[in-house]
Amino acid sequence: MDFRATLLGETRAFGDAIRRADPNTPVPSCPGWTITQLMKHLGRGHRWSAQIIADRRLEPIDPREVRDGKPPADVDGALEWLDQSAQAVIDAVERVGAETRVWTFVGPRPAGWWVRRRVHEATVHRADAVLALGGDLEMDSELAADGVSEWIDLALTSAKPADPPLRSGQTLHLHAHDDGLGPTGEWTITNDDEGLQWSHAHGKGDAAVRGRAVDLLLALSRRSNDVEVLGDAEVWEHWLRSTPF
């Protein structure tokens, strides 16, 4: 997958989804936010990460200090600012080099890490906008499946040892039934003697969660619950309670 092209495409698709919307429309999946606040969050977040990359920072910056962090007041200007925000991430990575290590919230990572992260920030917030506006969400199954993988990576990296998202000895299996995904549409997460880990292996879990890849992504990120849960539902519920992001 070309994450750079996808970042531009998903950010542009977000803009297309909200272009004619009432800017004060509330976003139920982001309580207290409006469509305008959601757009500002996405664009400023792109610019925040671009500034971290461009400055080769090894510590975070206050979002209020992001350069050009406020969009113009008019819709066309704001959406152009949004698109430029995504481009800023790509430009910053190209300038410093994809392998240059910079700060991330999961520890130092190559600058290119941010491109994939911002892709999935855009996909999930595009879903927020489309759902808030009562539209039909369409998302490429390969992109959604990669979002599931990335979300699981973040959840395991950020897991609290005192309250792991899977209790010792438990296994959680996710299965996307979209055509053509193959092994990349399955995720087996375990907590065994080697700790928390996951793979694309097929396996039987204490709980199994099935649905389209996009529905699994939305369920993991607590945007919807349109999935089928088999086995011990408490394993899945505990995972959701223990993996806020």
Automatic annotation (TrEMBL):
**What InterPro entries does the annotation carry?**
DinB/YfiT-like, Maleyloyr_isom, MDMPI_C-term_domain, MDMPI_metal-binding
Q: Which Pfam families match?
A: MDMPI_C, MDMPI_N
Q: Name one GO molecular function term.
A: metal ion binding
Residue ranges of domain Mycothiol-dependent maleylpyruvate isomerase metal-binding in the record: 9-129
Q: Which SUPFAM superfamilies match?
A: DinB/YfiT-like putative metalloenzymes
Name it: Maleylpyruvate isomerase family mycothiol-dependent enzyme
Q: Which residues form the MDMPI C-terminal domain?
A: 142-237
The record's Gene Ontology cellular component field reads: plasma membrane
Q: Which organism is it from?
A: Mycolicibacterium madagascariense
